[in-house]
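For the sake of transparency, this paper describes our internal protein records without simplification. The tokens are whole numbers drawn from a learned vocabulary of local backbone shapes. One such record is reproduced below, unchanged from the form in which we store it.

. . .
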Amino acid sequence: MTSNQTLGAALVGVGRMGQVHLKSMIDSGRLSIRWLVDIPAQHGLMAELIKRHRLTGETEISDIESSQKVLLDPRVDVVIICTPTPSHYDIIKKALTAGKHVMCEKPLTLTVSETKDCYELAKKLKKILFCAYNRRFDKQFNTLYQRYKRGDIGDLRMVKFTSREDGPGKEYLQNNRSGIFLDMAIHDIDYVCWLVGERPSSVCAFGSISSDNSALYRSADDFDCVTAILNFPSGVMANMEDTRAARIGYEQKVEVLGTKGLIQTRNMKASELYSITQNSCQSEALLRSSEERYVDSFPTELNHFINSIEGKEENLVSAESCIIAMEVSEALSQSLRTGSIVRL
């Protein structure tokens, strides 16, 4: 393929994240969107998206049960998956087997063994399998990583990662069934392990159901607030907090302490306006969602995926790193349920 040719793409899943990725796909100018795929109840939405984005005549609609015709379409080079987590494994394997490159929303699958299966198949078929850990492609987070790696703060000692959000609704929790560490904290786990450059040697976790929406999380057999400690072979420690139903907006903070200094990211706000009166000082509210906070990371990761296919860049999210994140997530979930330290 020459650099000025576009790849044919199928988007599977047009929910919240599917629409985020659809915009990136269109804006990139590097993909021809051949298919939108989802359940029949979403066909009206898909038709509206085609009309809204002026894709009429270029893009067709299919339901997931009939997706084999999409995967057999020779015009399709890549499949981007944004369906609920339990469906990922089957769709990934079918897409790879059909000879397509695959980008999939996190988590890649529900289990470590399924994730290993997918990467083994991708390696066998010589196809790119990319898990969308978009924190790596955020400007603040990536700059922090680069400054640490060039030695700005010396040797790493401690990492603190705070994630707070308003929380998903009932339908989302019921459809994903993956638990807070695999569904929400997996982003933090991936970033911390990538930053440290090691697989943790042991982990422990504690959780509670303490929000004003506690009944929802109990019904889903999940937690709305967890904290975790990751110990690494080099002596580095990481502390993570992940809280849902926080009611303060979308908070994302990383603090990295080294032997020579400290680096921190800042929360993103609607604007940097700051008001001062005789009686108060007031800054703007935090952004409300991951789509707002990480708006620039989505096109960046998509372009990296395409560059990986074209041989211009090496896939930054390796099979090994994705498997490590899954292993840590499973270990933390085990610790959360048993109250014990889990060694990896």
Q: What stands out?
A: Residues 137 and 232 are 24 Å apart (CA to CA). The two ends are 42 Å apart (CA to CA).
